[in-house]
Amino acid sequence: MIVTIDGPAGVGKSTVAKLLAKALGLMYLDTGATYRTLAYAALRQRINPITDVKRLAELARRLPLELRPTPAGGLVVLLNDRDVTKAIRTEEVSEAAAQVSQHPAIRAAMVQLQRELANRHGVVAEGRDTGSVVFPQAPIKFFLDADTRVRAKRRQIELAELYGTRPPIVQVQEQLHFRDGLDRHRRVGPLMKPTGATVIDTSRFTAQQVVRAMLHHIQQRFRHRSGFATHARPYRRTRPRIASRSSSSG
Ligand code: DC
User: Fold this and answer.
1) CA-proximal residue: ligand 1, atom 2 (nearest)
2) 142-157 b/e with 16+ CB inside 10 Å = b?
3) pLDDT tens-digit readout, 20-47
4) Pairing of strands 65-69, 198-201
5) H-type helices in the chain, by residue range?
6) pTM, to two decimals
7) Nearest alpha carbon, ligand 1 atom 1
8) Which of 228, 230, 196 shows the shortest CA–CA distance to 214?
9) How many Å apart are CA 87 and CA 83, to the nearest integer?
10) Which of 35, 98, 138, 243 has the lowest tally of Cβ within 10 angstroms?
11) 154 CB under 6 A from ligand 1?
12) Is the minimum distance from the CB of 97 to ligand 1 under 6 angstroms?
């Protein structure tokens, strides 16, 4: 069982993916963490994330990365057995991750790594291209979106938790805008709504409400199949409306 959740930064993908994975008894796969860990390792080894593609690709192919699930449903990210869970969340690493993810050779290595990580488990995979490139055959795909101001606000709160101070909203918006541009316009694996994905606008909903909507959707999809059960709570009126659905597959 593979569920994919894609969308731009700040739509709440990670929170929602963790909760959904827990509810479905699947592993949570944070594909962004693979790019971030590579970027972090590159910065430490003074490899230029924009120009030094050859050394980056070598590093990507032998990246000693482990994603270890926590009892709370999160992930501990280990690089060479060292816990880098927090270190890969800084703005410096965010920017470098956006840069390393532009290179087709790097994306190929990361996609292979992500498939290997998912190989032995059912996963809820979260990222930019999980439904379009990494797991195009996934039976359930979601695409999350949200208002730019809401996304910036969420990222601002995340940064305040990380650094203890709140950066100005204008600065956060600029950084989001920069990363959105790189994500949407790269040649390989750009951020896009995958074919067959269900779109949810998370602007006005809590993570719990979004997860409830997803579980409801999954139950509807699988209601005729035996042996698949979700722990979904009953339908509530606060459930976000599912905005649209591509008609070409699913
Ligand atoms: O989701 P995130 O912010 O942790 O992702 C970090 C960077 O990695 C982001 O700039 C885009 C890139 N990324 C990607 O290119 N493809 C993915 N599937 C996931 C993340």
Assistant:
1) 32
2) bbbbbeeebbbbbbbe
3) 999 999 999 999 999 999 999 999 999 9
4) unpaired
5) 13-24, 31-44, 53-61, 91-100, 104-119, 148-163, 169-185, 207-221
6) 0.87
7) 32
8) 230
9) 8
10) 243
11) no
12) yes
Quick: pLDDT tens for 139-178: 999 999 999 999 999 989 988 988 888 999 999 999 899 8
Q: What are phi and psi of 192, to 5 degrees?
A: -160, 160
Domain 2-246 has CATH 3.40.50.300: yes
Angle value at C-alpha 174, between 173 and 179, nearest 5 degrees: 100
Quick check: helix, strand or coil at residue 126?
strand
For 56, how many CA atoms within 13 A lie in the half-sphere containing its CB?
28
Ramachandran region of residue 196, left (φ > 0), alpha (ψ -120 to 50) or beta? Answer: left
The residue whose CB lies within 8 Å of the most ligand 1 atoms, and thus the one to mutate among 13, 28, 31, is 31
CB 17 within 8 A of CB 30: yes
